[in-house]
Design a protein that fits this description.
The protein is mainly beta. The strands form nine sheets. The protein has a five-stranded mixed β-sheet, with no helix packed on it. It has a four-stranded antiparallel β-sheet with strand order 14-13-16-17, with no helix packed on it. Strand 19 and strand 20 form a beta hairpin. The longest helix is centred in the first third of the chain and has 20 residues.
């Protein structure tokens, strides 16, 4: 079989090289499906081939737990390093050394250290010198093996350092838009005469989400629909593009000028993929195409969770539509990529879905007194149990610091970093919110996050 693959990516933020690796592995799986003519069931040869591929492209994830995020020059920045397998999130005894550095606003390294790793963890500190000017810095960590892949997998965290002896230098004021309004068609593209879900995200110049509302108008300036953003400035609406039409969004900001943005152009032909809950146990993935010219041509749907393939399905469109019903218990925990390949084995749509982890360790902390005086000894009792209440052994780290207006609560922890932040592009505003509780509002916010930060066009 001779095949040529050409893939063009356009997405928010820099492209992760790992996505190319994943697609190449998936493409191999597609060829096997085509050869074995699998019908609506995962093929053992596909799973084996993809697993063999994953074993040859092992990836690491690093998480640094720092004692705080706000420091004075001269202080020590203490940290604990956790190095895990990027697929299963278990300690990985692979790299023996981690590199930790602090970068200034120009991404220049101003401080570095090396930390020995044993059985996937290590610890160390950085003495913050008085030569640093006041400002925001980036803490970055990686292993030598991780340099074989994109730097997007490096751990990064923002630190604030204040030096009373060396105040912040004047910076050149750069012109920057006050607001950024973006639209993300589900699956990748808009197609004429095919109904699509379109995610919308609006942020200010500092990257903070803005809850607002607006309208979609056509070329004749007729209002087609109204939309609004929800949590962190992210929302969605349903649009069915018409041929020879262009669409524009208008958002009126109080006491300021109206923000106007052109929606992505709709294609005459193409695939649209929609993902929704069918019921509590199943997902429904609907594939649609404009017209009936491609009826009875097979398409292939693949689902993988952090490079571990979960599903390999095939089906044929009838009357321009194909529906896959997928049991949620077949998917891995965390972010799953659903990729659709057409008859010619070209990737045509992709959609991300988040499955909440079910079995998480429960941490309970108690003290021997409700209050303490200055320099009194504090005894802290910590118990770790699983979801069934059974005691569990665990490697952990704890930071104790003064909470005040200068030291905000750190929204990043090892849980939301491994499950969410490390597998998405861009800055995730308040990642802890998505794990705060399991309400319909939080689940919808999570899905909107998948539609925006996980969006890409083939």
């Amino acid at each position: 079989m001779k095949c040529i693959l050409t893939v063009n990516f356009t997405k928010q933020g820099p492209l992760k090289r790992k996505l190319v690796n994943v697609l190449m592995g998936l493409l191999v799986a597609v060829f096997l499906v085509a050869q074995t003519k699998a019908q609506n069931q995962p093929n053992e040869a596909v799973l084996k081939q993809f697993e063999n591929y994953r074993q040859t492209t092992i990836q690491e994830k690093i998480y640094l737990h720092t004692d705080k995020t706000f420091y004075l020059a001269g202080e020590l920045c203490w940290f604990k390093i956790y190095n895990v397998d990027a697929v299963v999130h278990k300690p990985l005894d692979f790299s023996k050394l981690a590199y930790v550095e602090i970068l200034d606003r120009d991404n220049r390294s101003v401080l570095q250290t090396k930390v020995a790793l044993k059985n996937g963890d290590g610890n160390g500190s950085l003495q913050l010198p008085f030569t640093l000017i006041s400002g925001r810095y980036k803490l970055r960590a990686y292993t030598n093996w991780m340099k074989n892949f994109s730097a997007d997998y490096f751990f990064e965290k923002t630190l604030t350092i204040v030096n009373s002896r060396k105040p912040a230098e004047d910076t050149i004021i750069q012109t920057k838009k006050k607001y950024d309004l973006q639209f993300f068609p589900e699956g990748g593209n808009l197609v004429n005469k095919v109904e699509s879900k379109v995610a919308v995200r609006m942020v200010d110049k500092n990257g903070k989400g803005i809850n607002t509302s607006g309208v979609i108008i056509n070329a004749a300036n007729d209002t087609i629909l109204r939309f609004k953003t929800e949590k962190f400035g992210i929302g969605h609406f349903i649009l069915k593009p018409e041929p020879s039409q262009t669409y524009r969004a208008l958002v009126a900001i109080p006491h300021e000028e109206t923000v106007s943005v052109q929606l992505p152009e709709a294609y005459k032909n193409g695939y649209v993929m929609q993902l929704a809950n069918h019921d509590a146990e199943q997902l429904k993935v609907t594939v649609k195409i404009a017209g009936n010219d491609f009826d009875f041509n097979p398409v292939y749907l693949f689902a993988h969770t952090r490079n571990s393939i979960k599903l390999a399905l095939a089906g044929k469109l009838q009357n321009g539509t194909l529906v896959f019903l997928i049991a949620k218990d077949k998917l891995g925990e965390g972010i799953t990529h659903f990729t659709l390949f057409d008859t010619d084995n070209h990737p045509v749509c992709e959609r991300l879905y988040f499955k909440y982890p079910e079995k998480q360790l429960q941490v309970k902390m108690t003290t021997d007194s409700a209050g303490y005086g200055i320099r009194n000894k504090v005894n802290v009792n910590i118990s770790i149990t699983d979801s069934n209440g059974d005691p569990k052994k665990s490697k952990m780290s704890m930071a104790v610091y003064l909470t005040d207006s200068l030291q905000p609560k750190d929204e990043m922890d090892i849980g939301n970093y491994l499950w969410l932040t490390s597998d998405l592009t861009g800055t995730i505003e308040s990642p802890q919110y998505y794990f705060s509780n399991n309400t319909p509002e939080v689940r919808e916010a999570m899905d909107n996050l998948m539609l925006t930060h996980g969006w890409r066009r083939f």
